[in-house]
Amino acid sequence: MPDTPSALSWAALFDMDGVLIDNTDFHINAWLQFAQHHNRPLTKDQYVDHINGRVSADAMAYVFQRPISPGELIVLTEEKEAIYRELYRPHLQPAPGLLAFLAALKAQGVKLAVGTSAPESNVRFTLDGLPLRPYFDAIVDSSMIHKGKPAPEIYLTAAERVGIEPARCVVFEDAFAGIEAGIRAGMKVIAVATTHTRDELADVGSMLIVDDFTQLTVEAVQQLIQSS
Ligand SMILES: O=P(O)(O)OC[C@H]1O[C@@H](O)[C@H](O)[C@@H](O)[C@@H]1O
Description:
The chain is an alpha/beta fold. Helices cover 44% and strands 11% of the residues. Helix 6 links the parallel strand 2 (111-115) and strand 3 (138-140). Helix 1 (24-37) crosses helix 4 (70-88). Bound molecules: 6-O-phosphono-beta-D-glucopyranose. Its cofactor is Mg(2+).
């Protein structure tokens, strides 16, 4: 049977924090608590500019202003993420429109993956807690890559795992570092205005800005792929 346009293969790659779930304020509060506990200065603006969307190794090196050994990184990361999970657990819910959008993509045969800077413990908390894991063909977290966002490795690895070339991948991102990672991977990026305002996202190179998934259809996203 010939391929219908909707069956042409492409992939939707989702960032996790700030996209699948609208949790940025909880990460901010967790980071501020964690930094205070370690007597390290950290402001919300510094979080947004230097930590948001980045892997823990890079975030911790920024907070402590020195390289962090692998053993120390595991301990510090779990300390910070335990604070975050405790704060966010009562609020855990999928982003508006997400479940219907994922179901529609799956029904059209679109490959689905997650590309997150988060550690595996937070991936379990989110994807099994909701639960969202069954929707995805591949999940790439910080333990599976060498260079975190804004390097393109997370999204290139996700594309490889679902067997779709980068030019036929659409990335959904809220963070500047993640948007840059998607663009550097040669993918189309849709910015989700959770962490940043539409104005702040206006000039960062995304093809579209949405407030949430209620504003998207599979057909509209597929047109982005076909438009180039
Ligand atoms: O947005 P992503 O790639 O899912 O990133 C997850 C990371 O996002 C950061 O913003 C959080 O402060 C981290 O703690 C978290 O691990």
